[in-house]
Amino acid sequence: MNPTTPREPAHPRTRVVILGGGSAGWMAAAALVRLLPHACTIRLIESAEIGIVGVGEATLPHLRAFVDTLGIDEADFMRTTHATFKLGIDFRDFGRIGDSYIHPFGSFGTELNGVAFHHYWLRMHAAGRQDELSDYSIANVMGAMRRFAPPSADTNSILSTYSYAYQFDATLFAPYLRDYSLKRGVERTEGRVVGVDQDAESGDVTALRLESGDRIDGDLFVDCSGFFSLLLGRTLGEEWEDWSGWLPCDRAVALPCTPPAGPIEPYTRATAMSAGWRWRIPLQHRVGNGYVYSSAHISDEAAADAIVAAVEGEPMAEPRMLRFRAGRRRRSWVKNVVALGLASGFLEPLESTSIYLTQGAITQLIELFPIGRIRDCDRNEFNRMVDLEYDRIRDFLILHYHATTRDDSDFWNHVRTMEVPDSLAEKIELWRHAGRVQKYSQGLFLEPSWIAVYIGQNILPKTWDQRADAFEVQGLARAMDKLRGQIEQAARAMPEHDEFIRRRNAAIATELR
Amino acid sequence: MNPDRSIRTVAVVGGGIVGLSAALAFVRALPRVRVEIVVTPADPAALADRLPSTLPPVGRFHAAIGLNELDLVRDGVATHRLATRFENWSASGRPWYHAFGDYGLSAAGVAFHQLWVRARGDGGVRPFHEFCAAAMLAQDGKFVHPSHEPDSPLSTFLYALRLDPERYRRRLTAEAERLRVTFSDGAIAEPERRQDGGVAALRLADGRRIEADLYIDCSGPSAALASHLGEEFEDWSECLPCDRLLLAVEPGDGLPSPCDLAIAAPSGWRWEAPLPDRRLAGFAYAGSITDEAAARREFGGEAAEAVEIRPGRRPQPWVANVLALGDAAIAVDPLEGTNLHLAQSAILRALELLPGRDCHALELREYNRRTEQETRRVRDFLALHYLRAGRTKGRFWRPMRERKVPDGLAHTLEQFEARGRLPFYEEETFDKHSWLAVLLGMGVIPRGVEPAAGAVDPAQAAAAMERLAGRIAAATQRLPGYRDYLANMARAPSR
After folding, report:
1. Residue A54 has pLDDT above 70, yes or no
2. Among A399, A417, A414, which residue's Cα sits nearest to residue A458?
3. Is the pLDDT of residue B90 over 80?
4. Cβ-based neighbours of B460, under 8 Å, separated by 6 or more
5. How many angstroms separate the CA atoms of A109 and A112, rounded?
6. A86 assigned to active site
7. What is d(CA B373, CA A299) in angstroms, rounded to the nearest whole number?
8. Residues of B with CB below 8 A from A40's CB?
9. pTM
10. Statement: residue A8 has pLDDT above 70
């Protein structure tokens, strides 16, 4: 041993206690047992009496990395959770009633001479060319044709310019991860927590007391107790930062339906309503629907009536109501409590960010996982990364409401005219003025996402990059025609989305036999 | 761009490498824009014009201005640059290499350096740079273009160019003339101003008047034009202590090398950059600690030219229709060869974010914001070399540990020292391999490793590390020396 190297002494394994068995709790358990089996013991406490929210049926492409890290076979995972592929979100009636655009998981066109494609499109659009920016996104074109094939790893191929996520039955997601975790040594305790013990001096949580009288000791407590936020919110009293002024939707009413005949869309649909919006998520065996609304602008009964009237198939259950509010705890890691999922904060599901936020926090927790004493620098770093994610997603969500000309209801009048955060106002101004997206590379929703929503909701910049003028109009038109042709041809060569899923399911069934 | 908003004319102030580079990049990207260069008297402290070491993105920049690497190398304008060898910077005194390549291979989701740090604590491991193919090539004085075979250890690095300042300037000038950039000579006098604070026209000392939509100040640290729009300066001398340089040209030993040298000495540090026929050398020191005569004695160059710099940056490099580039925008000492790179990076960013003729504040803000992120992080990286050098002997080095560490570097050190984690920063110039090479090379060793490393068996990790070092050694040993490689390149057909 080199005497000049300061080394930490060996520590006993950290005892992790996870409170709550929803998606967040079981995602944390699965990731910890997969990646840090030597560094911690994991116990998860859940109660069958306390339901889980389990609505987050639509996900983002990042979840694939999580599935991959756990070593889960994607085909098996998708079959078990009745999952379909998702290439983006189809937004309807947001900018104006009658409008429709897709926010794709992919880019628009290809860079030309170092200039982003949308500048060429803006120039040609101003010159009178009649097509949509979305015609240059292969994810969009595939979605419209209801086709699917996995993207290519060859970065020179047009087939590498998109990505995909899953649409799945969220009530089957947590059980899937529970099976995974229990097989690998996570211990599960059934019971309701009735008391929390804290160290008199430090305030650290030392144990959870159960209704049964049992006492669960731990070193690190992961609060996945949902909105109740038993440890971070109720016990440690971490302050709530309220964002409902900008994101007024605070309830949802969910209504699963039978699938329609015909092909399954490889995308989620979000349709603006008079006091919010409604989701439509096609799974293999049903279609998830729900109306996310602002209770200040519509009654629960009227919202339930509206969703019942709007759905296409036969309802498979009674409408189920959920309450929430937009915002987050000021810090997510305080003392020895790390809150994940709803216990830490909530952003409404408009861009399917819920599971992503949980996943991101788990990734940070694993990188900063405490061995021995918990250090301030680790907590601070964790909270810094969580802040970064929340702030950017918040701005992106607000944009969907604010960028509208709708004046047909109090709700839309409110969001259209409200003051937005300065950070968002600046981004919108830069786009409007110069067609540029404020650049960052860490975090969700990079340039193509912002462009999709800006253009989809009719915020057209006044101008474009001057370098895009270096080409003659005719030459550009030919290049763009060619690109469109390539995209269309590539999409047309793919199997239908249904067919792709059917074939994969059949292949697994054969394997299992 | 709507024609009524487009920039039509650009006047570049300064005819050195930075000014020529900016002019070329603008005419290439914007063929309809007229570009005029006002060749002002050269400023001896304009380091980006004088010390044209570059970083790997130089390839992208040259592609943008239409220069071809093969031509530059064959004509003796450029040689390749893979690494810098640092001598006497570490606590142990052992040399180390900062190379433009991957150090080690990650496995099973655990970063290589975590396993290296653990192995080091457990009783010994090869120096970190022996797991980097580019460093091993540099150590042997060899160079090869990176392989396209993903499994080859020779596919894991990048390279930069080391430019001969005089020849490079002549090449850029010829290119600019060919593309109809116009030149005029003269010193800048007080400019004519517009109502909004921008510049309406340049006035030359002899009374000539030059009008343009956009003015680019590449005149060096005195910022002949930009200084009229604001004198604000962010001073970095607390963390970048070298404000005096001695610059020398020495006869070469005839052996070209892809490796630069940086040798720490009691009063500062000395550099050597071999060109094909001679060697650029120099000495960096702090004027408050060492006087010029003593520095000359230590450097051993009586004929060397003395230059003063003021480390720091202009916080608003783009104000109204005046953009400051190169040493007019940021001044740092030659450590790690960032001077010209930062100018090239700023030129491409200016084109990427080129505003309309009105140079609207919103657009400039985005340019200035990103420039601040980039340059502060370069400052952090350079400051690391001084404030956490393993060497503590010598009057220059002794007080370095007491100096205030800038926030970004403090955050990085805190995270790294705890468990070898490198926090993410936007607009980072040096990737994590570069940070690791310097941190570990100098002897900044994390107290612990990340817990995920515990999942990898130490004996297996040690065996894998030996295999990797063996593969790198085998791949580099069979290559010819750099001189032979250059000779082969000279015979290759033109592209």
Report:
1. no
2. A399
3. yes
4. none
5. 9
6. yes
7. 48
8. 451
9. 0.94
10. no
